[in-house]
């Protein structure tokens, strides 16, 4: 993802500081958290194409590709930002702590979800495998939506800048294997611990 096309700070970065806490409002000194109406606007885009929901337009930061715009098309980056925004709106809903955390990639977040034992290991493994096997971006987003809902349930944060990059790369069939490999390296870290309590 080229930073040279970024026109403004990504939405989640406006609120979460480098210490993974809410930023302080320079005027009031209190925590500056995403307003509920912002999160509602973001969720309005779930399952909808990028640029299809006017309430979401103020939150986009990706530069417009003039060549694509002339053909009434949006770029892969714009589509990825739209998807990440809507998933963040879902993830942050009703959570008091930030659900964006820099450095927590999807595989790592899903591993943390598995370790909570809140959901069946087998069912979660199947959901993650189905996600990784998605053959289109719309299918990927359907599976991500379900997993993000589970992450929200346990209060597990996720790096939305990384997720946006993963979604953007999923538009290219040639890049999907690299994204899958990254997810596998994060999620399959539980494998070496698959011994019983006696170390057998």
Automatic annotation (TrEMBL):
Alphabetical list of CDD domains matching this protein: Cse2_I-E
Pfam family, one: CRISPR_Cse2
InterPro entries named in the record: CRISPR-assoc_prot_Cse2 (IPR013382), Cse2_sf (IPR038287)
Signal sequence extent: none
Cited Gene3D superfamilies: CRISPR-associated protein Cse2
Domain of life according to the entry: Bacteria
Protein name: Type I-E CRISPR-associated protein Cse2/CasB
């Amino acid at each position: 993802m080229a930073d040279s096309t970024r026109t403004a700070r990504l939405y989640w970065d406006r609120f979460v500081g480098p210490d993974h806490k809410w930023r302080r409002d320079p005027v009031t000194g209190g925590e500056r958290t995403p307003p509920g109406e912002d999160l509602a606007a973001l969720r309005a885009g779930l399952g909808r194409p990028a640029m299809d929901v006017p309430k979401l337009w103020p939150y986009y930061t990706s530069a417009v590709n003039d060549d694509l715009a002339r053909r009434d098309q949006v770029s892969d980056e714009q589509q990825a930002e739209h998807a990440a925004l809507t998933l963040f709106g879902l993830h942050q809903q009703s959570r008091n702590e930030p659900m964006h955390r820099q450095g927590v990639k999807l595989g790592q977040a899903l591993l943390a979800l598995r370790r909570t034992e809140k959901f069946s290991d087998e069912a979660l493994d199947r959901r993650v495998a189905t996600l990784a096997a998605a053959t289109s971006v719309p299918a990927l987003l359907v599976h991500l939506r379900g997993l993000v809902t589970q992450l929200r349930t346990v209060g597990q944060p996720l790096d939305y800048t990384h997720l946006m990059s993963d979604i953007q790369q999923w538009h290219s069939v040639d890049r999907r294997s690299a994204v899958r490999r990254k997810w596998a390296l994060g999620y399959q870290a539980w494998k070496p611990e698959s011994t019983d309590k006696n170390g057998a």
